[in-house]
Design brief:
single chain, mainly alpha
Length: 116
């Protein structure tokens, strides 16, 4: 009688171990599938939100931040240019007066060359 009882206990414990392994594997598979489905759903939602935002003309947060950075750089450049000492007024007018004189001399030379 002891031997059949021992065989029965071995059989039941074997089934229990086997069942545990199967349940553990099944739980791991379900967990893996759940993670994969969550990632797919997240990507789908992000894509749909991006489409809707594009239709309405909304900018993404990273695009807005890039524009803010660019504006800050431009403001710094303007401040640096404003901090530079201004050129003397006479230097500008002298350069401006010389340019038309050169043009007039070039026109006279061209007219003389054409007349010859």
């Amino acid at each position: 009688m002891a031997e059949p009882l021992q065989n029965y206990v071995s059989l039941v414990s074997g089934l229990t171990r086997d069942s545990r392994e199967r349940v553990t594997k099944l739980a791991e598979e379900i967990l893996h599938a759940s993670r994969a489905n969550r990632e797919l759903l997240e990507n789908l939602v992000v894509a749909e939100v991006d489409k809707a935002a594009a239709r309405f003309g909304f900018a993404r947060a990273d695009e807005v931040q890039a524009l803010r950075d660019e504006v800050a750089d431009l403001r710094a450049m303007v401040a640096a240019l404003q901090a530079q000492p201004a050129e003397p007024t006479g230097a500008r007018t002298t350069a401006a007066k010389k340019a038309p004189a050169k043009k007039a001399a070039a026109k006279k030379a061209a007219a003389t060359a054409t007349a010859e």
